[in-house]
Write a structure and sequence with these properties.
single chain; alpha/beta; Elongation Factor Tu (Ef-tu), domain 3; 5-stranded mixed sheet; Ubiquitin-like (UB roll); 7 helices; 6-stranded antiparallel sheet
């Protein structure tokens, strides 16, 4: 039985390799054309020291100068020694260029384009053949805009392994991708996806989780929830449920999309609760204001919480300021900003 190894690099690129039974991660990567830096293969130099974010493995043998017991306890490992015992997510302390690799390019076909609202578009793509673009839930790809030579970046809203790759895209007036999707896109069109990219992805769930989404920043959370519903976490076996609370905020009532999908996930995932809010003071929505207005002490768990935040820059900065002013320091805080403009479609 082989294992699926996600190698995440310092420049945001992720590549996936397969490790055969008993094979070290370094050997598996090298066999598939990725050169993880190392100066030995004996656990003596520490050059290949990496951090395991999820999964089980045999750490092998090494000397204290290469990896201390304290580092090993935290999750650090040596790729020249570690042998996977499950699928693994591994953070490599080098860029993809140093490791002599680059992003994957995958051809896809448009299946559907749906206007969810004046501001939101759902795009569904079928990847060529039997291929599936592997990615971590929460990551994004660059999608080529037909006839332009330009790309725009979008987070998957579908979980890894889904039959179709789906995206939740902001309809930006004058936007290059928006103009294509609303004007001339049709089923059967050919697109190219390059990636996956980004350090905003679901980690192994070990404590309560707080998810904060703004606008089409909901997309990566839909991907995360899809993975959690299927496995209990980021590729790991099902685990005892931890509470997950998602707050999804938008500007206008009409901007609320995929709410039924969120409720379906809440029915499937033990401990998941969902709140939606609208900033417009004239809204008829039950919850008004910003996401920070609807955070209760139990959602923050005294700081022992993993926070995921995705939305436009003003929202991200407002949440960070709220935590600072409240004296809250989450156990981990992962965030991604996107600027929905003609020059950047994310």
């Amino acid at each position: 039985m082989s294992f699926h190894i996600a190698l995440t690099f310092e420049d945001g690129l992720t590549r996936f390799v397969e490790a055969n039974p008993g094979e070290t991660v370094a050997d598996a990567a090298y066999r598939q054309g990725i050169n993880i830096p190392l100066d030995c293969r004996d656990g003596a130099c520490g050059t290949c020291k990496s951090f395991c974010e999820a999964g089980r493995y045999d750490g092998g043998s090494y000397i204290e100068d290469a990896l201390t017991d304290a580092e090993a306890e935290e999750g650090y490992c040596l790729t020249c020694q570690m042998r996977p015992a499950s699928d693994i997510v591994l953070r490599i302390a080098a860029s993809s260029d140093v490791c002599k690799t680059k992003a994957m390019a995958v051809a896809a076909e448009v299946v559907s384009v749906e206007r969810l609202s004046d501001s939101g578009i759902a795009l569904a793509l079928a990847l060529d053949g039997a291929s599936r673009l592997s990615f971590l839930p929460g990551q994004y790809v660059n999608i080529g805009v037909p006839g332009t030579g330009e790309t725009r970046s979008y987070s998957f809203s579908s979980p890894p392994g889904a039959e179709l790759a789906t995206f939740l895209i902001r309809n930006v007036p004058g936007g290059l991708m928006s103009g294509y999707l609303t004007g001339r896109a049709k089923p059967g069109d050919r697109l190219t996806l390059t990636g996956p990219l980004g350090s905003f992805y679901l980690r192994e769930i070990r404590r309560p989780v707080l998810m904060l989404a703004g606008g089409t920043g909901l997309a990566p959370f839909l991907s995360m929830l899809g993975r959690i519903a299927a496995t209990g976490g980021n590729g790991a076996p099902a685990m005892p449920p931890q509470p997950i609370h998602l707050v999804y905020g938008v500007t206008q009532d009409c901007d609320l999309v995929e709410v039924d999908t969120l409720h379906r996930y809440a029915e499937r995932i033990p401990g998941l609760t969902v709140a939606t809010c609208v900033a417009d003071p004239d809204s008829r929505h039950p919850l008004k204001g910003y996401v920070t207005h609807h955070l209760r002490p139990e959602h923050l768990n005294g700081g022992d919480v993993d926070v995921y935040l995705c939305g436009p820059p003003p929202m991200v900065e407002a949440v960070r300021t709220h935590f600072r002013d409240s004296g809250i320091t989450p156990a981990s805080f992962h965030y991604e900003k996107f600027a929905a403009s003609e020059g950047n479609g994310r």
